[in-house]
Task: structure prediction
Amino acid sequence: MLEISHLTKRYGHDEPVLKGLDLRVEDNSVVAIVGASGAGKSTMLRCINRLVEPTSGSIILNGMELVALRGGALRRARRKIGMVFQGFNLIDRLTVMENVLAGRLGYVSLYQAISRRFPQTDIERAFTLMERVGIAQYANKRADELSGGERQRVGVVRALMQEPELLLADEPTASLDPRTSEQIMMLLQSLASELSLPVLINIHNVAQAKTYTERIVGLRHGKMIFDGAPDDFNEEALDAIYGGIEAPDDATTESPTASREVGHDAI
Ligand SMILES: Nc1ncnc2c1ncn2[C@@H]1O[C@H](COP(=O)(O)OP(=O)(O)OP(=O)(O)O)[C@@H](O)[C@H]1O
Result:
């Protein structure tokens, strides 16, 4: 379980971009974080994995306070937090298998990493996960020979190789076509339930958030102003979060094929 309390982040002397966020996410739970550009969504995810230092507050993952950690303890805690990126963050010239095994780098020795001598159990786990997400046949292909959807599956498997206790996804579908986006959202949803993994997804596409997650958290200017079920995410909530900016007609309707975005592009 992830428990965030009074999380505040201020960059330099600017106005805080996160203003006392409280959020509790159970295992298996897929939560969409929505909000206009600059609302603080990425900052929130990056505070959780400590890529950004929180100014104050508490972030507890399965009983461990992450904010207090330093050095080796922080590195060990970070391997328990998988991250999936908008741009996939793969190493193009490496094979799919090599990219996937990069998820084990926090666990193997420097020698094993440099000589690429990963334990057999890691390789078996990699194949099991690649089969699960449908990319095992590409194990020896270079990452840059894959389509966007396949590349994102590699990114998901790499994150799962960390044996994470929490999965963070920062706009995981923003670089993908609508159909592939939906497949990736469905994959994240089913993996959360199969692996009992809490998943937080920053997403601009409100229709997809409503269809593929069970809870929506809406940020505005660093404050949480909506936290509820997709069915309760109505025009009023949309207006509160996006400040009256006109949303696409289908933004509040559940639609497996809806793909229009609210946020960046609409603003
Ligand atoms: N490293 C930084 N230094 C200073 N200000 C920053 C930094 N990173 C983000 N900010 C500011 O913090 C605010 C929140 O940014 P953040 O990227 O978290 O928003 P977001 O909701 O993820 O936006 P987007 O949807 O555009 O990615 C913005 O005003 C941004 O300019």
